[in-house]
Amino acid sequence: MRTSRLAMLAGAVLLALPALAACGGSASSGDSAQAGPVGGPGLVANWTLTSASDAAILPSLGITLEFTDTDASGFGGVNRYMTTFTSSPEGALDFAEIASTMMAGPDDAMAAEQAYTAALGTVTGYTVAGDELDLFVDETQVLTFSKG
Q1: pLDDT tens digit sequence for 112-126
Q2: Closest by alpha carbon to 38, among 118, 107, 92?
């Protein structure tokens, strides 16, 4: 009798495990806000900066970022810049050393461009969702672009 109760209890636990696992998983997957980079299709495109976490970076300068399969380039507000990058579909992104032309411009635009290229050099991840590209340093979103 004792053995049959033990067998019934073990069977009940085994039957309940999938339901318990589903309950545990739904709590974390129910978060609507995505924290950190998650990758996404469509990184290779032309992007225009729409916002930055650093107030010194001025989206009004028409800053762009253009990705090909292995190269990235764009306009930093005064100068053109170019670099190579590596990425993963899971959201990792790493830019190599960034080179640029050496034109002079207004002090605020030069400072914005310098802050922008410095921010690009620290990027570790990305997320593409529709026509929006977000670049991250670890879990912190630092730059946002729109396609076009």
Answers
A1: 999 999 999 999 999
A2: 92
- Residues 91/63, Cβ–Cβ less than 8 Å: no
Beta bridge partners, 140, equal 137
CB atoms within 10 A of CB 37: 25
Tell me which of 3.30.450.40, 1.10.287.70, 2.40.128.270, 2.130.10.10 is the CATH number of domain 46-147: 2.40.128.270
Among 73, 68, 75, 63, which residue's Cα sits nearest to residue 44?
68
**Each residue of 51-71: pLDDT tens digit?**
999 999 999 999 999 999 999
pTM: 0.75
Contacts of 117 (CB under 8 A, 6+ apart): 76, 81, 98, 100
